[in-house]
Amino acid sequence: MESLTKTTNVPLAGNSGNVPSANNSGIVPSADISENASTADITGIGQNIPLTYDLHIHSCLSPCGDDDMTPGNIVGMASIIGLDVIAVTDHNSCKNCPAVMELAGEYGITVLPGMELCTQEEVHVVCLFETLDDAMAFDAYVDAHLLRIPNNEDIFGKQQIRDAKDELIGTYPYLLINATDISFDSVYDLVTSYHGIMIPAHIDKDSTSLLSNLGFIPPDSHFTCAEVKNPSKKDALKKMHPYLNSVRIITNSDAHYLEHIQEATHRIHAKSKTPSDILRALTTPPT
Fold first, then answer.
1. What residues are paired with 86 via a beta bridge?
2. Residue 38, exposed/middle/buried by CB under 10 A (0-12, 13-18, 19+)?
3. Binning pLDDT at 50, 70 and 90, where does residue 46 land?
4. Fewer CB within 10 Å, N- or C-terminus of the chain?
5. pLDDT digits (tens, 9 = 90+) for 83-117
6. CA 228/CA 89 separation, integer angstroms
7. DSSP letter (8 states) at residue 107
8. pLDDT for residue 14 is more than 60
9. Stretch 60-81: mean pLDDT
């Protein structure tokens, strides 16, 4: 499949940078990861506006990401689904964020540039930033702390960097799913120094998560937002780990395929759709 094409009246981004013509591909968003709106994640309702979101999406830069996860296809699917806010968070890299951000603005979608950092303990942490400049500066820092093991595309998959027309402009030579030499306990201060926030990823998973790999939440932790894959586990996790009672818990898709991008059922409430207000809502403790 070349690019996500128009199956509704919603205009989509595509390989040419223009609205693509319709075909019979029949791509529709999956419903198997959503939850009812009445149980969606909510932050400070008040005078704030509700925003549907998916803040953990992998592009074709991640070797485990499908080749169809191009910037244009991701924005197109988000537009079809009706997401207000998305974040592209490839493994240890932000290099496809520029193209996604360029496209998304045309469709009224806010993009938080981000990364799924793999610490030296192999704990995955979603890192989100207010500006592309901050994200790319963080990208350069992480790049210098990544093991220089060449990627074998036949085994691990391609690591494609694409522009806003979905054209291939390069590949990343070193395997991105490796651990960095960055420790978990240093992530908060590090990400904060780039005006970003850290969100321990899929803490309910039995691998590559804070709880699976460390077995506990370090008592000197400072993070104020965490991600669960399955929202039905939130209450049990809070009982086992009281620290989480003061943390904003969100649910994202961790999508590696277009059909797995989260439907518009999870919401945050923010003052506006600007990245700064969204980051502030994500880090505001629950009441």
1. 54, 111
2. exposed
3. low
4. C
5. 999 999 999 999 999 999 999 999 999 999 999 99
6. 16
7. G
8. no
9. 98
> Does the pLDDT at position 77 exceed 50?
yes
CA-nearest of 26, 7, 53, 65 to 267 is 53
Q: Give the distance, in angstroms, between the CA of residue 204 and the centroid of all CA atoms in the same chain.
A: 17
Distance CA 128, CA 280 (A): 11
Give residue 36's region: left, alpha or beta (phi > 0; psi -120 to 50). beta
User: In the 8-state DSSP scheme, what is residue 63?
Assistant: T
Question: 115: which 2 tokens?
Answer: 């990364």
Categorize the per-residue pLDDT at 15 as very low, low, confident or very high, splitting at 50, 70 and 90: very low
Whole-prediction pTM: 0.85
Answer yes or no: are the C-beta atoms of 54 and 86 closer than 8 Å: yes
Structural tokens at position 232: 């039905």
CA gyration radius, the chain = 18
The side-by-side arrangement of strands in the sheet containing 267-270 is 110-111, 85-88, 49-57, 267-270
Q: How far apart are CA 77 and CA 159, in angstroms?
A: 21
Candidates 197, 228, 282, 252; CA nearest to 237 is 228
How far is the C-alpha of 114 from the C-alpha of 97, rounded, in Å?
7
Report the relative pairing of strands 114-118 and 124-129 from DSSP bridges: antiparallel
Residue where the block lists tokens 């960097």: 161
Residue type at 100 in one-letter notation: V
Q: Which residues contact 133 (CB under 8 A, 6 or more apart)?
A: none
Taking the C-alpha atoms of residue 120 and residue 90, their distance in angstroms, rounded to an integer, is 17
| pLDDT tens sequence across 221-274 | 999 999 999 999 999 999 999 999 999 999 999 999 999 999 999 999 999 999
